[in-house]
Each structure stands twice: as C-alpha cells, then as structure tokens.
Write a structure and sequence with these properties.
This protein is α+β, with helices and mostly antiparallel strands. It is built from 5 helices and 7 strands.
C-alpha cells in the first residue's frame, strides 16, 4: 500500500515529468492541478493496486479497468482530437507551452462493457488475430504504434507524423 504523502506525490510527479520529457508527450503545465491528479493516481494504486485514471470511477478489478489504467487506452486519440486526455494530465504541445488551454472533453470510454477494448471479441483469420487498430511503422527507427492514426511525433526518435507508414 502506497501512502499519499508529499514525498510520494513529488516522486511520482518527477517520474511522470521525466518520462514525458523523454517522449513526445507533455504533462499539464498547471503544476497544482497536475499534482492533484498524481495524488489521485497514488490513491487509486493504494486502493486497487494499479493507477486507474483519477477522473473515472474504477471497478476495482484490474481486468475491468485495464483500459483506464494510466496512461489509458484513450489518451492518444483524446490528444489527437482535443489536445488533452480525459483528465488533462497529458496535454498537447500547444497547451504545455501556454498557447491554448485544455477544455472539457467527452469520455470516449464505451459505456457498454462489451465495447471496451479488453472485452471486444477477437476474430481470427490467416493464423493470427485481426487487429483492432492499424499498425503504423516509423521509417526512421522502426517504432510500431497500433492506433487509428500515426503518432504526431515518434516517442523514440522524434520523427514527425509524416515519417510513418501503414504497416498492417
């Protein structure tokens, strides 16, 4: 069980900040707001054993909640469409640089359990499961991303979106 202490909040905040600086992601620049979200992640990890999104109601069962464990399955699509993830922990470069602000956005997590990624029926064909998303390959470093659109920036080599090809 992880205690909610200033030290633990600072430690997780520093880890998330470091991780995002090494990738193409950005944390919300409102430090007080971001620390409240980090506190929620710690509370959920203490409560459930995993860091469920602090802005969603978790079931307390890892398999039920796997799609909302931070970073959630919906983060990248939310960033692409709205410039922030559902809870606004992760934001676009424009928001991180103060050029714009995060706005409330709809929760794209399906209400129906069977429509959530972990419960969708996988169809099998040609000896492998059909993928739920296309796979994009970075031409520079080979990084693979399974999502509807290629990432804006490769998290490995920082190549831009136009350097990705549809792989599968």
């Amino acid at each position: 069980m992880i205690e909610i202490t200033k030290e633990n909040i600072d430690k997780l905040f520093a880890k998330l900040d470091s991780d995002t600086r090494k990738s193409s992601y950005f944390l919300n620049p409102d430090s007080d707001f971001t620390r409240e979200l980090v506190e929620g992640l710690i509370a959920n990890e203490s409560r459930y054993g995993y860091q469920a999104c602090p802005c969603r109601l978790a079931a307390g069962d890892r398999n039920e909640d796997i799609d909302i464990i931070c970073p959630c399955d919906y983060r990248d699509a939310d960033l692409d469409d709205f410039g922030a993830c559902y809870c606004a922990l992760y934001v676009s470069k424009d928001i991180a640089e103060g050029k714009t602000t995060a706005q409330p956005l709809p929760d794209r997590r399906p209400v129906k359990r069977e429509e959530r990624p972990q419960f969708r029926e996988k169809k099998v064909g040609k000896g492998y499961s059909e993928l739920s998303h296309p796979v994009w390959r970075c031409r520079v470093c080979g990084y693979l991303a399974a999502r509807d659109e290629p990432p804006g920036v490769c998290p490995i080599c920082k190549a831009t979106k136009d350097r990705f090809d549809r792989f599968m």
